[in-house]
């Protein structure tokens, strides 16, 4: 149980720090003329992620789930995913956000994991939503929130792609990220 409490506390603190970073980045971007796209789905995304943590905690504690026999492998994968998360955030810098914040006229470039595929941060979230519950045999949470997250992403990604294409005059294409205009 201590491993679960340590792990879940670490991830929740990580998410809180990311929300602080996102808010700071949003303020910087708005000063440059950025705007938010797709705001109507954002509260549902917050509910999804909060619900994920609540479900995981309840499933592990109430139903007394134990550590997976594959915990070491799953932890290794989880730590690799966390490395990708840090790479995503550092690659986007002030452009990283939990909201869809776009800067009109921004140019697109290939850097970091964005040089390899379009939405690596969403891949990170998908992996976490599977790996974290599997580490503690919380199969209900893994299945339900994987499905809910895929539904959310099926709404969010098209909105984000459309906003980025419009904001970058059609320059936003596969394998690219926004960079501050020169």
From TrEMBL:
One of its GO terms (molecular function) is methyltransferase activity. The keyword Cytoplasm does not apply. Pfam families: ICMT. It is a multi-pass membrane protein. It comes from the Bacteria. It is found in: Membrane. Gene3D superfamilies: 1.20.120.1630. The chain crosses the membrane at residues 42-63, 70-96, 122-152. Keywords: Membrane, Methyltransferase, Transferase, Transmembrane, Transmembrane helix. One of its GO terms (biological process) is methylation. This is Isoprenylcysteine carboxyl methyltransferase family protein. It comes from Ureibacillus suwonensis.
